[in-house]
Design brief:
The structure is a single chain. With 314 residues, the protein is mostly helical. Among the domains are: 94-108 and 239-301, Orthogonal Bundle (Endonuclease Iii, domain 2), CATH 1.10.1670; 120-232, Orthogonal Bundle (Endonuclease III, domain 1). 44% of the residues lie in helices and 4% in strands. Strands 1-2 form a two-stranded antiparallel ribbon. α5 (127-141) packs across α6 (146-157) and α8 packs across α9 (184-201). Iron/sulfur cluster (SF4) is lined by residues 250-251, 291-292, 297-299, 302, 304-305, 308, 310-311, 314. Residues 140-290 form the HhH-GPD domain. Interacts with YBX1. Interacts with ERCC5/XPG; the interaction stimulates NTHL1 activity and NTHL1 binding to its DNA substrate.
């Protein structure tokens, strides 16, 4: 069963694009479920389903900044899409650098490949519980090694990890379960607050827009874009963490040096073809875990050494 099918996603070859003011041409699709397995939606049904279900249950707040457009899988544009924008700048040699990274990552044996958010949920749980578990694993993962996040998720899942079970767990017990993830005390607080909002406003599910996800306590843009990709099967933006931020700057994949992951995300989205956005996070995170390390990168073992502007200075 593919990842989209596991979540009850659309696999009919249609792509959904969420827009928040910037250009976008999307890949991936996924109707919002309501806790039940959803049959693949036909074109147009997904839009109606998403508009209906993306709203919080009680507040009925509209995601006004988001427009939704569709593409067929062969790139044919549907109504509401804009002409593709040709980037005015792109990095020298990026295609060869990317091909080299794909080669170096071909074994798929980095920690992120086995323990990332795609692997932390219970595949037998109902779709909205799986989506909640994806979001929770992302919240736990910031400033934390994948192995530590996976251990915490295992302990939580052993008790039945749902919005209700978390809200019924006292803070001290929750802290013991997630320790030693980074900033575990703050995360206990954020997980409780976010779970209460999900229960109250989203019927125990997670929101299906970046704007609503980042409004949750303890959820940042990287987590939101990964949640959209993993839980909803929608490409909403490039998920940039410290690995992607560091490597993009070392390879000069940003027009000028960027100072934060968010700045890097915007710089990459300016030129990187959208059909590569979903691949970049996992590819570069694993590359950063194994070769382009934060300190003392293994440049001698890197296929990009001759093409890397930063290699000489490291
Ligand atoms: S040459 Fe070194 S700094 Fe450049 S991408 Fe490879 S490992 Fe990273």
């Amino acid at each position: 069963m593919c990842r989209l099918q596991e979540f009850g996603m659309n696999n009919a070859g249609m792509r959904m694009v969420t827009r928040s003011g910037s250009r976008s041409r999307g890949s991936g699709a996924g109707p919002r479920g309501s806790g039940e397995e959803a049959a693949p939606l036909q074109r147009g049904e997904a839009a109606a389903e998403r508009r209906k279900d993306c709203h919080p249950v009680k507040r009925q707040r509209k995601a006004q900044s988001l427009n939704v457009a569709y593409e067929t899988s062969d790139g044919e544009k549907g109504e509401g899409t804009k002409p593709l924008k040709v980037p005015s700048w792109e990095p020298q040699d990026w295609q060869q650098q990317l091909a080299n990274i794909r080669t170096m990552r071909s074994e798929k044996d980095a920690p992120v490949d086995q323990l990332g958010a795609e692997h932390c949920y219970d595949p037998s749980a109902p779709p909205k519980v799986r989506r909640y578990q994806v979001l929770l694993s992302l919240m736990l993962s910031s400033q934390t090694k994948d192995q530590v996040t996976a251990g915490a998720m295992q302990r939580l899942k052993a008790r039945g990890l749902t919005v209700d079970s978390i809200l019924q767990t006292d803070d001290s017990t929750l802290g013991t379960l997630i320790y030693p993830v980074g900033f575990w005390r703050n995360k206990v607080k954020y997980i409780k607050q976010t779970s209460a909002i999900l229960q109250q406003n989203y019927d125990g599910d997670i929101p299906a827009s970046v704007a609503e996800l980042v409004a949750l306590p303890g959820v940042g843009p990287k987590m939101a874009h990964l949640a959209m990709a993993v839980a909803w099967g929608t490409v909403s933006g490039i998920a940039v963490d410290t690995h992607v931020h560091r490597i993009a700057n070392r390879l000069r994949w940003t027009k000028k040096v960027t100072k934060s992951p968010e700045e890097t995300r915007a710089a990459l989205e300016e030129w990187l073809p959208r059909d590569l956005w979903s691949e970049i996070n996992g590819l570069l995170v694993g590359f950063g875990q194994q070769i382009c390390l934060p300190v003392r990168p293994r440049c001698q073992a890197c296929l990009n050494q001759a093409l890397c502007p930063a290699a000489q200075g490291l």
